[in-house]
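Components:
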Amino acid sequence: MTGPMRPPAGGDGARPPAPAGGGLRPGMRPGGRGMGPGGGHMMGLTMPPAKARDFRGSFLRLLRRLRPERTLIVVVFVLAIVSVGFAVTGPKILGNATNDIFAGMISKQIPPGVTQDQLEAGLRAQGKGQLADMISTMHLTPGQPFDFTALGQVLLILAGVYLLSSFFGWMQAWIMAGVTQRTVYRLRQDVDTKLGRLPLRYFDSHPRGDLLSRVTNDIDNIGQTLQQSLTQLITSLLTILGVLILMLTISWELAVISILAVPASIVITILIASRSQKQFVAQWASTGSLNGHVEEMHTGHSVVKLFGRQQEAIDVFDRENGKLYEASYRAQFISGIIQPAMNFISNLNYVAIAVIGGVRVATGQMSLGDVIAFIQYSRQFTFPIVQTASIANVLQSAIASAERVFELLDEPEEVADPVEPIRLPSTRGAVAFEDISFRYEPDKPLIDDLSLVADAGHTIAIVGPTGAGKTTLVNLLMRFYELDGGRITIDGVDTRDMTRDDLRRTFGMVLQDTWLFHGTIRENIAYGCDGASEAEIIRAAEAAHVDHFVRTLPEGYDTVIDDDATNLSAGEKQLLTIARAFLADPAILILDEATSSVDTRTELLIRRALDRLMHGRTAFVIAHRLSTIRDADTILVMNRGAIVEQGDHESLLARGGFYAELYNSQFTEALAEAV
Amino acid sequence: MIRLLRDHLRPYRNQIVLVLGLLLVQAIGNLYLPTLNGDIINNGVAKGDTDYILRIGGWMLLASFALAGAAIAAVYLGARIAMGFGRDVRGAIFRKVETFSQVEVNHFGAPSLITRNTNDVQQVQMLVFMALTLMVSAPILIVGGIIMALQQDVPLSGLLVVILPIMVAFIALVMSRAIPLFQAMQKKLDRINQVMRETLAGVRVIRAFVRTRHEEERFEVTNRDLFDTSIRVNRLFAVTMPVMTAILNLSTVAVMWFGAIRVDSGDMPIGNLTAFLQYLMQILFSVLMAVFMFVFVPRAAVSAGRVREVLDTVPSIRDPEQPAALPSAVARMGGRIEFRDVEFRYPGAEQPILRDVSFVARPGEVVAIVGSTGSGKSTLVNLIPRFYDVTAGAVLVDGVDVREMDRRDLWSRLGVVPQKAFLFSGTVASNLRYGDEEATDDQLWHALEIAQGRDFVEEMDGRLEAEIDQGGANVSGGQRQRLAIARALVKRAGTLIFDDSFSALDFGTDARLRAALDREMGWATRLVVAQRVGTIMKADRILVMDEGRIVGSGTHAELLAGNETYREIVYSQLSEAEAVA
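Structure:
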């Protein structure tokens, strides 16, 4: 479950004597993410408690993102003021009603005709001075029956005040929902657009899981905090202010007592929260290491068994499990104390007011209604304070999330495309690398002063051991990375003078790890070619020898490929990407032709399809097969980032160098004995 | 869920009783305070009796202290019980899974087992904690509140009959609308995660195919969809709290009105009116809390069910009661593997994946198994360590049916390099010592040398002590395979089983590794599953598998001359043009 409905925080949970009467503000929801048991942290194990590095800066930046909504935010503020205003006057009116009832009750016992002054004098004469004092604060109408019309009026006003408070509270929350959701929507859009503009280098150096969590968890966290905490913060602060004013108007002496409770609450909250924060960090850490262990042992289940390490696995588990237990019960306990502690302070305050208020009423210094109103106000007072303190915590984590998202948004983007790009009318496919230099990391030289020419229609095979830099060449050709020196031209035009889109449209790719997306087979083949006709798609599929297979599927071209394409074999996936390349009909092909873990029949199909695809196109092939290498017009032998040899098969063999050695070790043994 | 709770909370029952007692004290304290407050007003304020006010004030103070003490003790015990419960269940699941055979692990899938032991337990554990601290006190407060309210004034309590149903009806209405919305929202969140994951995974392809804009549009549609749903969720909540507040507040107004009538007629002292108001709020709040909390019960129940499923699973493969007494494995002595008319089918499968498989691998022999994907090679290999049990026939290791052996004994005789070279987090050395804890550094280096891993380990930071990330993510596929091979070698078992373990090695390394194995481990029986012809050509015997049967057996030369399937495999890898050359 996500969204605003969170496990109810201790906030209201074990709340003892609830605020009598109008103590409730429409904005307070029992789901507030507090620190109490059931608060944000509890289910929030997915989110490590994080601290923002630059809280102020990031907070302000987050607020700036709300700027398009500023008019509505002003409206929200106004509505909040009105709603809180009505809510805090409620108890005051309620107090008046209590006074009326109390007065009415006493009035009835006095014989008609006796004035209030006479009554007081009479009481004093009887030595009941105290009672007389008390009565002096009342507005008595002796002998009259209780005035229900007056009470009715007061109560009607009270009902109206409450209804209006709720209505404005609703309006405010309704508008706020739009404000925050639109802001979150925009933030997601910005991040997605940003991802499209980041250089590939960025993706290499950032784990996918981390990026994913920034786009999803972090933004989600921001959204929830904006929705809940911002409104709560506004209303809590306004409530504190409003209640304070009203308390002072009733009795400044009692107000002072209540205000004394404030620093006490804050200090206790901060003390406990910082301790529990530490425990939550520990809990998070041990959850992480326990999960890591479980994941490892379950994934490597058979290895653990084969090597007889079950007992050790269980021992480690028990140790980690015990640590998690220690950390989590401490975390839950300490954070669980906040609520009882707050309640205790609130109860002390309650007792103090009841006693002092009671005495003051008895001595005629205050009316009963005022005391009752005051009790309610003091209750209303503690809650928003605790809430504000806990929001500070939630806000910390949200700002840390925002910081991570902003960090992503601030990453430098790819070099912009040229303002007046050169467009090739039609590509012949002549490619030249001229003295190019490139390195992924500045201090690790990779490619230096490499040159090579591929004539149109030629096949260039790239061979060499793993990590020799074969894929890097391809990446540079596609301009996934920027060169450190030299230039690459296609038909004589520097690739940097073209737009990236135009450049990449001239290439077709068939890679070792096929990439299909969630969609139908038809959509997957037509990927990259909007508006391809049905006939064209089928022709491409036929050329790739995949048409027959597709037709054997129950839904043919409409078969949906699921997430991990588990309903297709590796070979079938490969054929689909070949069909995709056929349809795109590019001038230059890039092939990574490995066919590992494909059965022999499919492998033959793939090979035939590839041969047809390469016909008449310039092709860069990361070669794994002998036939490709032998037939290639040029073979590049790469080792440790450099082209160590270059030429055709015969000349390279004749040379007796690295290639000859590689060739002999890899193929001859198998070949000689196979025949 | 009930059963899971009952079983695993039993050790804590005394503590639970204590918590319930504390919660009761808390509830009574909470209920007592308003009564005392009412007393102050009725007997103190109304009569102007300052002494009385002070005395009751003292009681109230005492009640507050008791309340705070009870609450803190309850939270402490609650946290201990709930977290202890979670710890116990996690331990039980982990131990259970360790008894599972491959059948059960596959049935659940490792990721699902992980989720069950982590998130699912977490869900149930938090429910227990909430129950012990908040949920249990809600009914106590409701019942207690009603009793106290009745004590203040019976006719006025009649208002509850009107207010409670209105409230419950409203909550039910909100829930019935909120739950589907939440589900929809969760789906849309999953969807946006999925789109994002695809975008990140395919970033190269997207750019290569110039599809950035297209993907952005796709994301925008998904994002817009999520926005639409989440705004509906939030607007539903925008109306919920104000309405709840209005109900509570209007109840107060109603109580004041009817209370005034009761006070006026002299049936009720005014102090009872204020006390009643407080009880009313307490009841309504508790109802609200109870309902909001019970929303989490279904979710935890689903989790509990998933946990139970694991705990209730009976492993299909168990050790025999009286394992056969085997001569203990002798050092540097090759093992003997025999398949006798083995048939195997996966549970529920129509067709057996292996049938009529018979062969013997004798000490010191190299037996290779080739065949296309799906021909049953890996299944065959998995029968030897008894990851599965044959459905007919028998597998014998060192002359004894594996089903009659203690599995730990069985496993100690096998050095297996699995298809997926799985490394554990730790160091190179800690991974290699999985084979033999006592192995010296020299022995480790020796194994690495045979596995062709010495060079790259020497280049690693820290050499044998170099860090290995979980799953071996920080070394290349070829390095991972070589480490897994070295790990199996360190074990010095009589039989080595290589399940397609050379696939990530380049041909040269593959050849050197096999040569070193022949040289150094010639005494050990070796079973080699491979896709590449080059890897297995020199084996003493090659078994050719097709559709679960052995269709040919012999040396490379024999098979090339007389076995069609084998020839097909050979020529698919070395094309005819190459073969002629």
